[in-house]
Amino acid sequence: MAMVEFKDVQKYFGDFHALKDINLKVDSGETVVVIGPSGSGKSTLIRTINGLESIQSGQLIVNGYDLASKKTNLNLIRKDVGMVFQHFNLYANKTILENIMLAPRIVLHRDEKENKQIANELLEKVGLTSQANKFPAQLSGGQQQRAAIARSLAMKPKCLLFDEPTSALDPEMIGDVLNVMKDIARDSDMTMIVVTHEMGFAREVANRVVFMADGQILEDDSSDVFFKGEPKNERAKRFLSNIIAH
């Protein structure tokens, strides 16, 4: 069953054609990595999936909801589709534990005892048990991003979106965040769509690699095919050879 399906989707920012003729289907449980040069439309693509960006035409079905329909309640979609941003977006005036407990309390009306138990289990999962009562400013960037992942997981989403989750981190912090993401991909049946420049992660974890350039999907292959250097599109081949060369 498809968790996300784009059908001839177009997206504009004024006169700028940001997404062109997007056709993409992501099945439940798949891990799909979206790669490509800067400005290729990757982040715009992922932000349309939970309604942070609207589309101008075409059809976008997410977890059975049509995002092109004005009748669709975006809050219902966001209950099941979590998002991890580049810059964490934690509440600065709340502890890490409180950050994780907040959305399930307000949106899901989860019992407080159960909510705290789940939050503590997630803190353990992302290696932050000792940081529960600290505030975001007291944590490193990598720790904040792991807390943001735990916060998204607390809603028990069916699909989790990652928008370049390591690009704002110092190099020595990236590995811990990627390891948490690998654990999620390996240990759950959650759908994951990841915009990233981390090719090692894509090679190891992704079922599929989607390559974008100039607002278009130019390649959609299994990770095995893509990383064996067999993309069919010349732009994708050049991109891959440049990565390998560096």
Could you characterize what this model shows?
The protein is 39% helix and 26% strand. By secondary structure, it is α/β, with parallel strands linked by helices. It has one domain: P-loop containing nucleotide triphosphate hydrolases (Rossmann fold, 3-Layer(aba) Sandwich), CATH 3.40.50.300. The strands form two sheets. Strands 6-7-8-3-9-10 form a six-stranded mixed β-sheet, sandwiched between helices. Helix 3 (96-107) packs across helix 4 (112-125) and helix 4 (112-125) packs across helix 5. It starts with a strand and ends with a helix. Residues 4-239 form the ABC transporter domain.
Brief overview:
This protein is an alpha/beta fold.
β-strand number: 10
Largest beta sheet: strand ordering = 6-7-8-3-9-10
Low-confidence sequence ranges: none
Could you estimate the helical fraction of the residues in percent?
Answer: 25-40%
Radius of gyration: 18 Å
| Pattern of helices and strands | EEEHEEHEHHHEHEHEEHH
What would you give as the CATH superfamily?
P-loop containing nucleotide triphosphate hydrolases
Mean pLDDT: 92
Overall structural class, as computed from helix and strand content, comes to alpha/beta
What form results from the Cα inertia axes?
A: globular
The number of helical segments is 9
The level 1 CATH classification is Alpha Beta
What is the CATH architecture term? 3-Layer(aba) Sandwich
- The number of domains is 1
Major β-sheet annotation: 6 strands, mixed
CATH topology: Rossmann fold
Beta-strand percent range? 25-35%
Termini separation comes to: 38 Å
